[in-house]
Amino acid sequence: MTQPLSLYNTLTRQKALFEPLNAPFVGVYLCGPTVYSEAHVGNARGPVVFDVLTRYLRHLEYKVRYVRNITDVGHLVDDADEGEDKIGRIARARQVEPMEVAEGYTNLYQAHMLALGCLPPDITPRASGHIIEQIEMVQQIMANGFAYESNGSVYFDVPAYNAAGRAYGKLSNRVVEELLAGSRDNLTGQDEKRSPLDFALWKRADERHLMRWPSPFGEAPGEGFPGWHLECSAMSRKYLGAEFDIHGGGLDLMFPHHECEIAQSQACEHPTNEARVWMHNNMITINGQKMSKALGNFITISQLFSGENEVLTQSYSPMTARFFLLQAHYRSPVDITDEGLLAAGKGYRKLMNGLRLLDKLQLPEGTEAAADTSATDAELRKLAADCFAGLNDDLNTARTIASLFNLLRKLNGYAAKPDTLAQVSPEVLAEATATYRTLVQDVLGLRDEPRARAEDLLGLTLHFYQEAKAAKDYGKVDEIRAALKQQGIVVKDSKTGIDWAYSEE
Ligand SMILES: [Zn+2]
Question: Which residues of 28-61 are buried (b: 16+ CB within 10 A; e: fewer)?
């Protein structure tokens, strides 16, 4: 057996053995997209990494509840408490309902995530569907003295929170005094706040604001909308409890989003860090620069699949993209390049060829098994165990992929000389092939992606049909017709030429 799973916790800045709060149950929350535009490749890294994490936890026989939200309200243009709602702004420009914008991009996002092999989360809560829970949470935070109302909006009171001995900034290692010093110049326009560090839990909707709900805050009907940070605290609390196991997200969400989430949850009835383990995936860069919409420096997921981006010379399949994202450890940055993607395509196809090889690994009939297989057994067992060791070491998929290639090299050796299979016991061989299959397909989630197009293969077959006919090899002609018929295809051979059609039988 290999060691158990260890994960790096941003809160403690240490790797530690993963121990669920209530084994065998494990709660995982991942911050989902703000659905105001198409996701870029950088946005796909978190979902792919946490898909592998939940798949692996399930492989370890935990009962996982995986929640990945949709932010469809409250995320403002400047990522803080000012400016228009990102979705509202697009809706206004297109003269459609904000929910049409959100729905369209949610559907696209989910289709892309499925294409990338991410299993649908167990719960996909939308912020707009949890307004009641969010209002309740604001009231609770106010009742505990950690929030105040100002002109119909409600702000989290960071100084009061810290005065009570809590530590705003502990996740991102920020010091309140330094944050204050850095924000002095920004006080203008934030006069509703007592301190520039305070952040909105609820914002009063001005006349222009499209998405609004009645609330008990300000003058009746108190119309407004929730703050972005509050959504994740309220939704994770509803579905995973006040304290749960793992909260994930991109490194760019650590501050202020996750810092605020922790403060909100702590300011409620439970002194909790919301999640016990906070995991952050690193960013994707293009030419060393962070991939970001704000910087105009990004490749959308559709562009990656179609190749229509000036950084790319060709299209890349979803599984190539998934392999590309997994061949680095999630805490390392990854620079996206054509060369890197091409290499990922090769690596992915090598792993797939490995899958096709497994069934062929059989000792030729009549070959005697060796009397003592212990040395080879031990070697093969070690190669298989190494594949798990990578994952157990803070979900190091890069190491696991390297170990899978080592295992595959060994298995390829057996395939080339099947009689050498006599050196290994059938049980150990079965274990090793099961490890390969399980890790590649079930845990890394890499599925076989047909490379050849069915129409091109059909065209090729019809070419051989034509050749056989020209050579008057009618036996071959009939053979090809019958074989295609088996596939539901009929050959249309007429004066105008040879074509095919679906069988209508
Ligand atoms: Zn979030």
Answer: bbbbbbbbbbbbbbbbbbbbbbbbbbbbbbbebe
Alpha carbon of 258 to ligand 1 centroid (Å): 7
pLDDT in tens, the chain (505 residues): 457 999 999 999 999 999 999 999 999 999 999 999 999 999 999 999 999 999 999 999 999 999 999 999 878 887 677 778 889 999 999 999 999 999 999 999 999 999 999 999 999 999 999 999 999 999 999 999 999 999 999 999 999 999 998 889 999 998 888 888 776 555 555 578 999 999 999 999 988 888 999 999 999 999 999 999 999 999 999 999 999 999 999 999 999 999 999 999 999 977 789 999 999 999 999 988 888 877 888 999 999 999 999 999 999 999 999 999 999 999 999 999 999 999 999 999 999 999 999 988 988 888 888 889 999 999 999 999 999 999 999 999 999 999 999 999 999 999 999 999 999 999 999 999 999 999 999 999 999 998 778 889 999 999 999 999 999 999 999 999 999 999 999 999 988 889 999 999 8
For Cα atoms 163, 166, 171, give the angle at the middle one, nearest 5 degrees: 135
Q: Domain-by-domain residue ranges, the chain?
A: 24-281, 313-330+337-358+365-443, 454-502
CA of 423 to the centre of ligand 1 (A): 53
Adjacent-strand bridge partners of 248: 30, 279
State the distance from the centre of ligand 1 to the C-alpha of 229, rounded, in angstroms: 6
Whole-number Å distance, alpha carbon 34 to ligand 1 midpoint, is 9
C-alpha 348 – ligand 1 centre gap (Å)? 32
- What separation in Å is there between the alpha carbon of 237 and the centre of ligand 1? 12
End-to-end CA distance of the chain: 55
Q: Which residues are CB-neighbours of 470 under 8 A, at least 6 positions away?
A: none
Query: 57 alpha carbon to ligand 1 midpoint, in Å?
Result: 22
Q: Report the separation in Å between the CA atom of 328 and the middle of ligand 1, taken as the mean of its atom positions.
A: 24
**369 Cα–ligand 1 center, Å:** 57
Kindly state which CATH superfamily the domain 24-281 is placed in: HUPs (3.40.50.620)
Does the pTM surpass 0.90? The reply is yes
